[in-house]
Specification:
This protein is α+β, with helices and mostly antiparallel strands. It is built from 11 helices and 28 strands. Strand 27 and strand 28 form a beta hairpin.
């Protein structure tokens, strides 16, 4: 997935924050909320601004730093959680994000910071030129696509402060993008020390998952559409205007992760009788039915189960592009267009990648981006991918579709005989795919994020279903534990509640597996109590995958 970090929202100066916070307070101050009154966003931001002033030192805020609000969560009891990004001398800080937790009356409780190191640089003038950083990123992109002819390779660096990898330092964050020989996108983000030119880190910047309509995978499904004149549009006004369009087997032409010279089209699908698709690939609208249905179910899951109104919790819909590229064996979420994009697959290993759990997976990347923004590398990258697998799986169970019953297999509907196994990934025993990790180790962060995600996927299965052999919805599972202990499950609903709260309230961009254990225990404590069986089950499931 092509992703661009956005530093948006209400801005206030910090400790040097005084002037900005005072202005914000004067403009937005509202009566303090009581536990029985759900405070407005304006009140929450005023409370948070006050907390930043009072606790600047604790939060590591100085006169050289600014903050911007990324997300606001208000609990049913009025407790408030405000997530911030920070800049240093107007440069984005990787690992600078933090969450401020407030009581129902607006008083400060605590904070979670991605990193706790203080930020103080002698200079923000790079010694390594931007062009040098761009060249290094292009070389890195070519290195991971060795033997592939890349076309239209471009890269444009952004100067940042890297606080994710030890002592804060000036760095170039460069998104290098190109197209492969089939015209499909490849991309890599490279972090380069702006003083020495040494590579700090690098990761793929394409996050993968790898009326009524007759779909490819989910049977005949209901669809909310829009009548325009005498023509129906595959556009759902009840879910923020989400829609599905045809990419016409074209691809995007982008200079970097967020700036595109041209994009593949997303020509809105239309129909004359409001009966869409034939359930076969020969009708291009069949894949569109799957994509729109997957969007609908994911939207409903987040809204009805977690109270989240759309990906960004602002009621605005995203859109889908199907038939992207040429035999493209992939699907991805793209922050810069706020859209999901689905390839048709090559027909030998994979079919069209529009299955229900894939849709839930990709939309969840958008939710993660708008909340914890887990960095797509190392252990945090594994947690990013696992979050999409976990929530995509829960979407599949939520949909309760008889043609695609809930299971703990990822992408089982899209695999073909040439793929060599029955699913993309397996949550009960991730190593069944031949690459993923069942258990945590000190080297798990060195794996590709789709394989390091196995630890969290395994945890999630154990927390929901427990260990040992069992058959669920006709699928046989036999989940081991890494410590030899037998653990019991607490069900999918509680898994989803705990993981969602941990993601949106406690996790930050740098959260690793140890941090995920802490975050989910905090979530379980909030939801069920510190002495609850659920709290104990979370601890036991993490121990069962060797985390803590």
């Amino acid at each position: 997935m092509s992703r661009t970090r956005h530093f948006r929202g209400s801005r206030l100066a910090t400790a040097g924050i005084a002037a900005g916070a005072a202005t914000l307070l004067a403009a937005t101050l509202a009566p303090t909320a009581h536990a029985t009154d759900r405070p407005t966003r304006t009140t929450v931001l005023a409370n948070a601004a006050s907390a930043l002033l009072a606790h600047a030192a604790t939060l590591g805020l100085t006169s050289a730093q600014d903050t911007s609000v990324r997300d606001v969560i208000v609990d049913a009891d009025g407790a408030q959680h405000v997530r911030y990004d920070r800049t240093y001398r107007q440069l984005p800080v990787l690992g600078g994000d933090f969450v401020v937790h407030l009581a129902a009356n607006g008083s400060y409780r605590s904070a979670d910071r991605a990193t706790r190191t203080s930020i103080s640089l002698s200079s923000v003038t790079p010694k390594v030129a931007a062009q040098k950083a761009a060249d290094l990123a292009v070389n890195a992109l070519r290195a991971v696509n060795l033997g592939e002819v890349l076309k239209g390779v471009t890269a444009k660096p952004q100067l940042v402060v890297d606080a994710l990898h030890g002592a804060p330092r000036l760095a170039w964050r460069t998104d290098a993008v190109a197209k492969d020989s089939l015209g499909n996108p490849v991309a890599r983000t490279v972090l380069t020390d702006a003083r020495t030119g040494a590579q700090i880190d690098a990761w793929d910047s394409v996050e993968t998952a790898t009326g009524d309509g007759r779909s490819l995978y989910s049977g005949t499904v209901p669809l909310e559409t829009t009548l325009s004149g005498s023509t129906y549009q595959l556009k759902d006004a009840t879910r923020g205007g989400t829609y599905t369009g045809d990419a016409a087997n074209k691809t995007d032409l982008c200079l970097l992760g967020s700036i595109c010279i041209s994009r593949a089209p997303s020509t809105l699908f239309t129909d004359t009788d409001n009966h869409w698709g034939t359930g076969t690939t020969s009708d291009r609208s069949s894949a569109a039915v799957d994509a729109q249905y997957g969007t609908d179910e994911t939207w409903d899951y987040y809204k009805n189960v977690h109270g989240r109104n759309g990906i960004a919790d602002d009621g605005k819909g995203s859109y889908n592009r199907v038939h992207y590229g040429n035999s493209y064996n992939n699907a991805f979420w793209d922050d810069s267009c706020f859209c999901m994009t689905y390839g048709d697959g090559d027909g030998t290993q994979l079919g069209p990648l529009v299955a229900l759990d894939v849709a839930g997976h990709e939309m969840t990347h958008g939710v993660t981006s708008k909340t914890a923004a887990l960095t797509y590398t190392g252990e945090s990258g594994g947690l990013n991918e696992a979050t999409s697998d976990i929530m995509g799986t829960l979407v599949e169970w939520y949909a309760n579709n008889s043609s695609d019953l809930g299971d703990y297999l990822i992408g089982e509907k899209v695999v073909r005989s040439g793929f060599g196994r029955s699913a993309l990934r397996y949550m009960d025993k991730p190593s069944k795919d031949g690459n993923s990790a069942d258990c945590w180790s000190s080297t798990v962060g060195n794996l590709d994020v789709h394989y390091s995600s196995g630890v969290a996927n395994h945890f999630a299965y154990l927390l929901a279903e427990g260990s040992g052999a069992k058959t669920i919805n006709g699928v046989s599972y036999n989940s081991p534990t890494c410590n030899g202990a037998s653990v019991g499950g607490i069900g999918r609903d509680k898994l989803g509640a705990i993981w969602y709260r941990a993601l949106t309230v406690y996790m930050t961009s740098s959260t690793n597996y140890a941090g995920a254990r802490t975050a989910t225990l905090s979530a379980a404590k909030d939801l069920y109590g510190a002495g609850s069986s659920e709290y104990g089950a979370v601890a036991a499931a993490w121990s069962a995958v060797d985390v803590g």
